[in-house]
Every structure is written in structure tokens, then in C-alpha cells.
Specification:
mainly alpha, about 70% helix, elongated
């Protein structure tokens, strides 16, 4: 995972240097979308995780 983090950091650095702050934000946002999509495809996230209400003290409200 450290190598993946290094590659992502380098990509953000190149985008910031050559494309400016707007390109940096675009690359960061697309990277986040890709990360979430990868977690979803690996089965570590479910769509219901984003829409389910939170439970407090083991009870539902």
C-alpha cells in the first residue's frame, strides 16, 4: 500500500505542478472516486452503508 500511496502522491504532485491547483483538485477527486469504486468492487463496501441510519446504544430510532 505504501507504493500505491507514493504513486498517488506523485500523480497529485505532477498535476499540481504542471496543471495548477484546479488540476490538483480534479486528480484528487477522481482518485477518491476510483478508491471508493475499487472498495465497492472488492466487496469491502456496500451501497447500503451510505444510506443506512446509524444506530445508537444498539437500538434503532
Amino acid at each position: 500500500m505504501a507504493v500505491v500511496g507514493l504513486a498517488a502522491g506523485m500523480a497529485l504532485g505532477f498535476a499540481g505542478y504542471f496543471g495548477g491547483f484546479g488540476a490538483f483538485l480534479l486528480v484528487a477527486a477522481l482518485g477518491l472516486i476510483g478508491f471508493v469504486a475499487g472498495k465497492f468492487l472488492d466487496g469491502e463496501l456496500e451501497l447500503g452503508d451510505f444510506f443506512r441510519p446509524r444506530e445508537r446504544d444498539g437500538r434503532r430510532r
